[in-house]
Amino acid sequence: MTRLGFLISRTLRREASLAALSVSQKALLDDLAGKTVALVGNARALAEGQAGAEIDAHDVVIRINRAPMPSAQSHGKRTDWLALATSLPEAERARIAPSRILWMSHKRKRLDWKTATGPGFYLHPLNDYEGLKAKLGAQPTTGAMLIDMLARSDLARLDLYGFDFFASLSLSGRRSADKVPHDFVAEAEMVGGLLASDPRIIRNGLRVEPLSFPDVKR
Questions:
Q1: Interatomic CA distance for residues 166 and 185, integer angstroms
Q2: Euclidean distance between CA atoms 157 and 59, whole angstroms
């Protein structure tokens, strides 16, 4: 596809044309078979810990959007996959240096040419987005979409870091939970169910840590 063809497809919402640029979800998840994966969220509380070396020790490190990394000690340095639902300035792309970008947003108009033609590019299916939105009763976060998808792979272990469902707010912005279009209680319940049923999934390196979010309300 030419750049002009991409722009036309994006403008006219030609999903099949855009999807042709993407690896399949099966191929993406097959790449994780037997591997340990660190999924790093953007909760502010993560900056208070020392999980950086542990994060970087995983086979695959996945970060989200602008992937804030205030220190190597708390967040590590590596980014193998970057899951995006927003635009990515060139300076941020160079800083994060992902080897693969996953476009998770249903808003295709924000997808740029460089991302769509990058190595291993993945476009998250709209049906998956809509299905999770219906399940949660609200627009899912990028993190929730990733957890839902990664749990369907044959990975060996999935460690979740920096996921407190807005209890400590986000390193990537200053908005409070009531200012974003997500239901964090519903997402916490979804993840809690996965933690209880899937021994491969670990939160913050601790097995089935109780979920408690006193500052998050419906």
A1: 10
A2: 10
4 Cβ contact partners less than 8 Å away, ≥ 6 residues apart: none
- Terminal-residue alpha carbon distance, the chain: 44
Read off the pLDDT of residues 76-93 as tens digits, 9 standing for 90 and up.
Answer: 999 999 999 998 999 999
Helix (H) or strand (E) holding 81: strand 81-84
Ramachandran sector of residue 113 (left: φ over 0; alpha: ψ -120 to 50; beta: rest):
alpha
Q: At what angle do helices 142-150 and 126-136 cross, to 10 degrees?
A: 110
Q: Count the Cβ atoms, other than its own, within 10 Å of residue 202.
A: 19
pLDDT digits (tens, 9 = 90+) for 24-82: 999 999 999 999 999 999 888 898 899 999 999 999 999 999 999 999 999 999 999 99
Question: Half-sphere exposure (CA, 13 Å, Cβ side) for 66?
Answer: 13
Place of tokens 């097959």: 30
